[in-house]
Amino acid sequence: MRRIAISVASSTLILSVAGCGVLDATGDGASASPTKGDDVVVGLLLPEKANSRYDKFDYPIIKNKVAELTRKHGKVEYANADASATRQADQLQQMIDSKVDVILLDAVDSHAVADGVKKAKDAGIPVIAYDRLAEGPIDAYISFDNELVGEVQARTLLGALGSGVDTSDKIVMVNGSPTDPNAKQFKQGALSELTGKVTIADSFDTPGWKPENAESEMTGAIAKIGKNNIAAVYAANDGMAGGVIKALKNAGVTDLPPITGQDAELDAVQRVVAGEQYMSVYKSYPDEAEAAAQMAVTKVQGKDIQFDALTQDKVDSPTAKDIPSKLVQVSALTQDNIKDTVVADGIYSVGDICTAKYKAACSAIGLK
């Protein structure tokens, strides 16, 4: 069993071993107390649109899995807050008022949403924190191993700098939103690898994860440090990596330093192919989204053994302890393994990636 404490900055993550076979858990068991049939209504609240994954992957995967688990009788009510905590609070209240059976909540602001979570709990509606750990009396949590994400990004970045890397190498850190608890964990994981090996010359916590904010921050870092003195850039996700690259190009940098990312967005995968972005972190959205859908359905159907099998980890938030959880593993995506990750999992085809603009670059790295 694994435990992490979201509120403790110095927590150390251990590789999760949960999930081996648990998605195939069967049997309700004598302890099960079914409360709902197949007519399940799952409320899905996703946080923003700047990251294309939510509309392109998470929502349709969850919708399809709920339909599969309920013989097409269940449905998903979906709302996206577009990075507004106020809008998400209204959407959460609407789902409480419409009496959905369970809510999957990916919080814009993990602290601000706590009152809404309590209102759902008081209304008898279970809330499962999805992708980001919300505060308040949530019933379960599913996400990727977030500190491991930061560790993978930083280790890959150090590898790109080579064996001669030392504290003379200046790194800029473009971290995620200060209202997103995941961003703190990504940063913590990255710092655990970078500290003492390189110099963090500038660091930013980027409001809303917005690429334009990252571009502005990077422009400031270039002015402060000098465009030729930046050895590498830690960008916490792909959208912000795009903003970083724009700032560097606008400053006249033609030989881009290694730049990290996360989410394996199509644009980012193409930048990796072209050598503009060194890496991204591939997270299997089907694994996370399908497990979340199964957690939601089994929770309201009272299939206790299945639910327990899906939530073998434990996490602590600032407001709750021992939250049943599932932490999904991640991997680095570089030019060397595009075919073995996003292509093998059916996220993109080679044709999606290797458009006319990138055909020559794809050929150069053997992606065909």
Judged by helices, strands and strand pairing, the structural class is alpha/beta
Biggest sheet strand line-up? 1-11-12-6-5-4-2-3
| Helical proportion, percent range | 25-40%
DSSP, total strands: 13
Largest sheet: 8 strands, mixed
Average pLDDT level: 90
Number of helices: 13
Overall geometric form: globular
The first-to-last residue Cα distance is: 41 Å
Brief rundown of the structure:
The protein is 39% helix and 17% strand. The radius of gyration is 21 Å and the shape is globular.
Topology:
Layout: E1 3-5, E2 41-46, H1 53-69, E3 75-80, H2 85-97, E4 102-105, H3 114-122, E5 127-130, E6 140-144, H4 146-161, E7 170-175, H5 181-194, E8 199-205, H6 211-225, E9 232-235, H7 238-250, H8 266-274, E10 280-283, H9 285-301, H10 304-310, E11 313-316, E12 323-328, E13 330-333, H11 339-343, H12 350-353, H13 359-364
Parallel strand pairs: 1-11, 2-3, 2-4, 4-5, 5-6, 6-12, 7-8, 7-9
Antiparallel strand pairs: 10-13, 11-12
Helix pairs in contact: 1-9, 2-3, 4-5, 6-7, 9-10
Please tell me about this protein's structure.
The protein has 368 residues and is an alpha/beta fold. It has helices spanning 53-69, 85-97, 114-122, 146-161, 181-194, 211-225, 238-250, 266-274, 285-301, 304-310, 339-343, 350-353, 359-364; strands at residues 3-5, 41-46, 75-80, 102-105, 127-130, 140-144, 170-175, 199-205, 232-235, 280-283, 313-316, 323-328, 330-333. An eight-stranded mixed beta sheet has the order 1-11-12-6-5-4-2-3, sandwiched between helices. The chain has a three-stranded parallel beta sheet with strand order 8-7-9, with helices on both faces. A hairpin with a 6-residue loop joins strand 11 and strand 12 (323-328). The chain starts with a strand and ends with a helix.
